[in-house]
Amino acid sequence: MASMSVKHAIAAAKKLRSLQERFNPGGSDIYPALMGDEAITALIPSGNPLSVHILMFTRALREQGTDEQYEKFGRRADNNEIIGTFAQTELGHGTYLRGLEARADYDRGTEEFVLNTPKLSSYKWWPGGLGQTCNYCIFVAQLYIDNEAKGMAMFVVQIRDEETHMPLPGVHVGEIGKKMGLNGVNNGFLGLKDYRVPRLNMLMRHQQVLPDGRFVKSPVSQVSYFPMVFVRCMVARQNSNYLAQAATIATRYSVIRRQSPIEEGQPEPKILEHLTQQMKVIPEIVTAVVYRLAAANLQNMYNETAEAVYRKDFSRLPELHALACILKVATSYDSTYGIERLRQACGGHGYLTAGNLGNIFAMAAPACTYEGENSVLYLQVGKILMKNWSQVLAGRELMPSMAYISECSKMTSFPQWTGSWECLLKAIQYACVGSIRLAFQSYNARVQSAQSQTAAVNYSGLELTKAAELHGRSYVAGNFYQQIVNSPNKHQRSPQFQKVLENMLELHLIQIFFRHLGDILRFIRITEDEISALQRRLEEVLKELRPDAVAITDAFDFNDKILSSALGCYDGNVYERLFEAALKHPLNRKSVPDFFEAHLKPFMKENADNAKKSKL
Ligand SMILES: CCCCCCCC/C=C\CCC/C=C/C(=O)SCCNC(=O)CCNC(=O)[C@H](O)C(C)(C)COP(=O)(O)OP(=O)(O)OC[C@H]1O[C@@H](n2cnc3c(N)ncnc32)[C@H](O)[C@@H]1OP(=O)(O)O
Ligand SMILES: Cc1cc2nc3c(=O)[nH]c(=O)nc-3n(C[C@H](O)[C@H](O)[C@H](O)COP(=O)(O)OP(=O)(O)OC[C@H]3O[C@@H](n4cnc5c(N)ncnc54)[C@H](O)[C@@H]3O)c2cc1C
Predict the structure, then answer these.
(1) In sequence order, which residues have a C-beta less than 8 Å from that of residue 358 and are 6 or more positions away?
(2) 9 in Cβ contact with 40 (< 8 Å)
(3) Contact 488/398 with Cβ under 8 angstroms?
(4) Whose CA is nearest to atom 25 of ligand 2?
(5) Closest CA relative to residue 354, chosen from 183, 178, 585, 570
(6) Nearest CA to ligand 1 atom 7
């Protein structure tokens, strides 16, 4: 499987290169590479073994290396002359970066670093492509000078001979084993023993080790985390794509499949006529659109921040970090759970490999773990919210994406309930700020009672997580509201199109309201009549969006090859394709399977003989 994936990935990368040269000659624009990875990834159901090379190895060389280091390594990586990965996670550590055990000791006598993974738990474990594909990696290690720890640093390490692909001396490298998906990616392990690299193999754009061993600290140590921020932004885009693919499949299947009359004596309707089926499928279509728009915003913020960081302006890093964390978490959680809901909406056929929903789930699900495990990133955002709440209490301005927190903090009570979009959005934001205030009170009480900040974060973890989740909802819903209601290009939309978008906004806001009704009722008084009115509006907007469901998912414009699903093909010939796929199964090559003579027949005969004996 791995070699097939590599073959497909290389073919797709070559195609991408020709497209890039045609449409973006000599450009270093990141989009073609992303589109390429997106296309390659989508075309290789078992995952793209070059993803981490494209998204992390080449970018780390460009963003963390000096111009000279880019000329030496980065240009060759961008041109796919060398293939690398990003080797940070270890068998024993993934989240707690300051606990990473791999070490780099500077030898000023030879102006080299001596790299070691001192214990089994220090082995790098998980990096994509590391097992068999890559001949280089970015090796993340704790830097030591005169045995004094200086923090994390990145090193360009060649792990295999460029001609023979043999592992180099001091390198122990291989595949970590079968996974629940992405089995074409050959995630690998790497052990290094007294492996020497020249001083100039340490990426030194932001921090340096001089020939005499003097250490020049980075002005902002967190800039070394930048490669992870980029992938978190990519996950937001990629996982909204996975959800859109699954929503397209389930929608198309739901207008082909007929089952269970709604009126006695009437013909069986398309299953999408059932209100409960609409509630399973249509909100996922809208969620895919909502996150695709949020991910695009995040991408723009990443590009602006990356340019600023290149100019040594680190001012926007904290906001990008906070948004990248919360959108990576929200998109990966909601897409993973949404894809499973969509699979279940397709009944038994949803469980067939030919439907491809299982594989889309297996591609989407690990994003809840990689690039920062979601519950850990929720806590990270919770900590950032605590810091920003202190700013609010001090009367200081907050970063733009958190400005609503300041506004809501000034409200002594929630205004008269109207049920309008603005009211629903403000309710979610108000509940978020209420949760932040409660979390802060718990966290602050713990710190005041002499708990360390780390311990206070841990023991306030449930409230911090809730506040972070509601912050994500507030940001995403606010962004969608602005795009639909206040977009500068709103006048260019036809009235019909604007109406569809407004129905999608109505559905998203009401769906989020009901999902967090408990959190909202904690801070806002809403009567049963007001809630029932929203229930009626939910049923009504599902009915209104039903006729547009197919058109919206067609607009995602996934080629049948990308969907790779007998349930979701554009022509709707589901049963023919299911049956065609079934007949291709190896077990159908013979009428009588080999196991009949070898196992089944003797088994049945033995039982029959025993039955006869017991009667005698
Ligand atoms: C569309 C095209 C296709 C795209 C396809 C995309 C998907 C597929 C692609 C690739 C396949 C998967 C590849 C996977 C790769 C990996 O998984 S790489 C390894 C990822 N590992 C992690 O993410 C580790 C998670 N842990 C952390 O990030 C950190 O330990 C932490 C949890 C954030 C804690 O940070 P730290 O240990 O430093 O301690 P803190 O006290 O929390 O933070 C100290 C201050 O630093 C600030 N901070 C932390 N992180 C960042 C950051 N990234 N950027 C900026 N600032 C950061 C933090 O806010 C604190 O600031 P303060 O001092 O002001 O409070
Ligand atoms: C498909 C896939 C691809 C990957 N690709 C790469 C790659 O290319 N390069 C790379 O370097 N890594 C890669 N990784 C590794 C990934 O980054 C780590 O798995 C991730 O960072 C989580 O670390 P861990 O697995 O060690 O879990 P741990 O850090 O051990 O966490 C385990 C669990 O403990 C809990 N936990 C941990 N810390 C805390 C905390 N502070 N507070 C509360 N709970 C906590 C959480 O529930 C967490 O799920 C990949 C992983 C996968 C699944």
Answers:
(1) 343, 351
(2) yes
(3) no
(4) 94
(5) 585
(6) 235
Which residues are known catalytic residues?
A: 371
Residue closest to 48 by CA, chosen among 173, 166, 134: 134
Distance CA 517, CA 512 (A): 8
Asked if 251 and 550 count as a contact pair (C-beta separation under 8 A), the reply is yes
For 72-117, the pLDDT digits (tens) are: 999 999 999 999 999 999 999 999 999 999 999 999 999 999 999 9
Q: Other C-beta atoms within 10 Å of 598: how many?
A: 10
| Host H or E run for residue 225 | none
Give the ipTM: 0.98
Q: Which atom belonging to ligand 2 lies closest to the Cα atom of 379?
A: 42
Give residue 154's region: left, alpha or beta (phi > 0; psi -120 to 50): beta
Between CA 50 and CA 58 the distance in angstroms is 11
Residue 42: nearest ligand to its CA?
1
Pocket test for ligand 1, best of 100, 206, 225 (most atoms within 8 A of CB): 225
**Mean pLDDT within 278-292:** 98
pTM, two decimals, is 0.95
**Residue 128 in marked binding region:** yes
Distance between CA atoms of 568 and 75, rounded to whole angstroms? 41
Compute the distance from residue 87 Cα to the ligand 2 centre, in Å. Answer: 13
Going from the Cα of 235 to the center of ligand 2, the distance in angstroms, rounded, reads 15
DSSP H helices in 365-486: 374-393, 403-409, 421-448, 453-459, 461-485
Say how far apart CA 240 and CA 295 lie, in whole Å.
8
